[in-house]
Amino acid sequence: MTPTLLGGLIGGLLAAGLLLAVLSTPALRRVTLADRIAPYLADTASVSRLLSAPAGGTATALGRITAPLLRDAARIVDRVLGGRASVRRRLDALGEGGTVEEFRAEQVLWGAIGAGAGVVVGLLAAVVGQAGPLVIALLVLGCALGGVFARDWWLGQALARRDADIIAEFPVVAEMLALAVTAGEGPMGAIDRVTRLAHGHLVDQLTGILADTRSGTPFLVAVTTMRDRTRLEPLSRFLDGMAVAIDRGTPLADVLRAQAADVRALSKRQLLESGGRKEIAMMVPVVFLVLPITILFALYPGLVAITTVAQ
């Protein structure tokens, strides 16, 4: 690395640090609503420090220092990327209870980690291959954007795995509910029995319905709310069929068995489709690796013989 490039990198880091320090001063920061109304709430009872987050420590102090900058960066990422409704739906479907702001903050952290990795790779490339400042800057920017989008991709992958687990658990849980209803249990009693006997993502969904009902929400309202929140069509049909059967007084056990049979048929179709895609993927090494080598072994002796005769 040349002295000019090293001096430019150190100067850039110093300028970035000074800019962040100036922008984070109280005089330049936006006054929040909590800061404006805080002087008028001075006479209220303060919350016990035992109920608040533990103070002190290096990690807590560092978190308090970087929290405003992290919130601003998360707000900028949310403004640039958009899609709050989509993120909200996916977080609700995942069932982890996080907010969009927390997800944006995680995206900022992933982007910072990616930018750090880009700086390391860029410095190594500058030492080994004499990479220019523009290449290093583009590498850092690409790694930062890759980290931001990687967090969104990871959320989609986690949701896809959860959906696959729910589809796999669905027939067994539906059969258990049908068996409990046939034995004389009511809908809430059947769900309660299944949640005590089974575990899994679908059982967690049913536990949420049971918790909403016990907190005072009508059972049909809890079922329809869960139906509107889920993004799986089989589960939505299942909850809709349960709500319609309870509302109209139709036999619930028959509806549950029919839904379980439909999901088993759907699993068979998905298995056949996956097998067809894997079969096509298996043709790639055959066509591009095995077949050329076979042709080479078949033609090479003839080419050698023709070359020998020609000489």
From TrEMBL:
Principal location: membrane
Entry keyword set: Cell membrane, Membrane, Transmembrane, Transmembrane helix
Recorded topology in the membrane: Multi-pass membrane protein
Domain annotation Type II secretion system protein GspF: ranges: 175-298
Transmembrane regions: 6-28, 108-128, 134-154, 280-300
Keyword Transmembrane helix: yes
Key word Zinc-finger present: no
GO-annotated cellular components: plasma membrane
Localization terms from the record: Cell membrane
InterPro entries, per the entry: T2SS_GspF_dom
PANTHER family attached to this UniProt entry: INTEGRAL MEMBRANE PROTEIN-RELATED (PTHR35007), PILUS ASSEMBLE PROTEIN (PTHR35007:SF2)
Protein name: Type II secretion system F family protein
Species assigned in the record: Nakamurella flavida
Lineage: Bacteria, Bacillati, Actinomycetota, Actinomycetes, Nakamurellales
